[in-house]
Design a protein that fits this description.
Length: about 120
């Protein structure tokens, strides 16, 4: 826990406190990927939306919950409507499972969010 607390203050500060930054980032990346894989295996691709959309909304409007929560709810609903439309249109007259479309769209976004070096919120730098 102390490594994560130090890392939350910034990578320069954490490195000066002796935290192995590169190893910690790789470990967190792998651990987060494993957790997301378990979530998707248990809850399906729709649960995946609950992980991606709030982070994307936080990047767009900032970290304040007053702004982020309504944007995340609206963006999640809009995203799932378009996923449903795509699942019905792409393989017409058959329907493609929502989890496949969600995974095709969400996985690259998830990897992009996980691979970011700096995590800035909204207009903050």
């Amino acid at each position: 826990h102390s490594w994560l607390d130090a890392y939350a203050t910034g990578s320069d500060t954490a490195a000066s406190l002796g935290v192995p930054i590169r190893a910690l980032r790789i470990g967190l990346f792998l651990f987060q990927g494993l957790l997301v894989g378990v979530l998707v295996a248990v809850a399906g691709g729709v649960g995946f939306v609950g992980l991606i959309i709030p982070h994307a909304a936080r990047l767009v409007v900032g970290a304040t919950h007053r702004a982020m929560l309504p944007v995340a709810a609206a963006a999640g609903a809009l995203f799932l409507v378009w996923v449903d439309v795509a699942s019905r249109v792409v393989a017409a007259p058959q329907e493609m499972p929502l989890g496949i479309v969600t995974g095709i769209i969400g996985a690259p976004i998830f990897l992009l969010l996980m691979g970011r070096r700096a995590y800035t919120f909204g207009n903050a730098s």
